[in-house]
Structures are given as C-alpha cells and as structure tokens.
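WP5 quarterly update. Target: Dihydroorotase catalytic domain-containing protein. Source organism: Lygus hesperus. Length: 100 aa.
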Amino acid sequence: SRRIVRLPGLIDVHVHAREPGAEHKEDFSTCTAAALAGGITLICAMPNTNPACVDADTFNIVKELAAAKARCDYAIYLGATEDNYSIISELAPDAAGLKM
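Structure tokens (predicted):
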C-alpha cells in the first residue's frame, strides 16, 4: 500500500543552537537546516549559550544571530538565575519561555 502520512510542520521545543560561544558544534544556520530536513519548521533555542542567555544584552545578541542565520522559524528561551527576576517581565513578550 502507498500510504502517505502528511503532517504540518513540527515544533522542536528543545534545541541547542550553541550560538554564541560554541559555534564549532552548531549555530543557527546548521541547526535550523537540520531541523527543516527532519520536518521541523520552528525551533526553540535553549539559553545555555556562552555567555548564557539570562540578560537583555545576551538575549538581544541571540535574537540578532537567529534573525541573520536561521532558515526556519525560531523562538528563544530566557534562562532564570537568582539575579535576573527583575528583567523577566521586560523580556517575556519576546521569549519562548523561562528555563530554570
């Protein structure tokens, strides 16, 4: 039988884009190309970058990198720390969520 299962584009909610800080492993271009090859049309990037995505400056850097290199839709997580609770509400509209 020739059955074809058609699905909408899928979402990967746990992606390590590794950018900035570990581009020798992965970056937004390579991870989103791989995602598309597997039927993923939106990735959610984890905040464990170097520097960690836990403040406005780093979050904005990651957003710029993703905007320039991503081949599919993306969202970016913000990492929680003991010290960044005061900026969470400021970045919440642009973040995929908060990782603790």
